[in-house]
């Protein structure tokens, strides 16, 4: 299997965020180019998630941080941006050498069929 082509990630306005439009484009055109990690609880993940996302709840993240790849951007997601932001900052503290790390600051609603809706967070 061929490796995914490198991707250029567009940062969002807030520190550590990925631009929502850029995230949606990556999911549509080249989802294997990023390591997508859903940090919600397993029951939330099982109810619906991004197709290429692995599940690593924030309470398990610290013990698994050393296993995360350094060869592609890492993007954390959750339903609101709160837990994914927490995961981003935890990774900054534990593995500061990883520079291509982002989180999705958005409200995401997932359906069991794999569909989803991403909305900018209410300010």
Mean pLDDT: 90
Shape call: globular
User: What is the terminal-to-terminal distance?
Assistant: 42 Å
Number of strands: 6
Number of helices: 4
**Helix and strand element order:** HEHEHEHEEE
Q: Unreliable runs, pLDDT <50, ≥5 residues? A: none
Strand content: 15-25%
**Strand pairing plus helix content: what structural class?**
alpha/beta
Helix content: 25-40%
Cα radius of gyration in angstroms:
13 Å
With strands numbered from the N-terminus, the spatial order across the biggest sheet is 2-1-3-4
The biggest sheet, with number of strands, parallel, antiparallel or mixed sense and barrel status, is: 4 strands, parallel
Give an overview of the whole structure.
By secondary structure, the chain is an alpha/beta fold. The chain has helices spanning 20-29, 42-46, 58-64, 82-94, and strands spanning 35-38, 54-55, 74-77, 101-103, 107-110, 116-119. Strands 2-1-3-4 form a four-stranded parallel sheet, covered by helices on one side. Strands 5-6 form a two-stranded antiparallel ribbon. Helix 4 links the parallel strand 3 and strand 4.
Note the topology.
Layout: H1 20-29, E1 35-38, H2 42-46, E2 54-55, H3 58-64, E3 74-77, H4 82-94, E4 101-103, E5 107-110, E6 116-119
Parallel strand pairs: 1-2, 1-3, 3-4
Antiparallel strand pairs: 5-6
Task: Give a concise summary.
The chain is an alpha/beta fold. The chain contains four helices and six strands; from the N terminus they run αβαβαβαβββ.
Features:
4-stranded parallel β-sheet; globular; 4 helices; single chain; 123 residues; alpha/beta; 6 strands
């Amino acid at each position: 299997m061929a490796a995914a082509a490198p991707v250029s990630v567009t940062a969002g306005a807030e520190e550590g965020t990925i631009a929502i439009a850029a995230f949606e484009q990556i999911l549509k055109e080249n989802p294997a180019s990023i390591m997508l990690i859903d940090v919600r609880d397993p029951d939330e993940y099982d109810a619906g998630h991004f197709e290429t996302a692995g599940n690593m709840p924030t309470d398990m993240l610290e013990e698994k941080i050393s296993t995360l790849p350094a060869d592609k951007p890492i993007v954390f997601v959750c339903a609101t941006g709160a837990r994914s932001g927490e995961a981003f900052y935890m990774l900054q503290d534990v593995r500061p050498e990883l520079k291509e790390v982002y989180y999705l600051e958005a409200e995401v609603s997932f359906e069991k069929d794999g569909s989803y809706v991403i909305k900018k967070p209410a300010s």
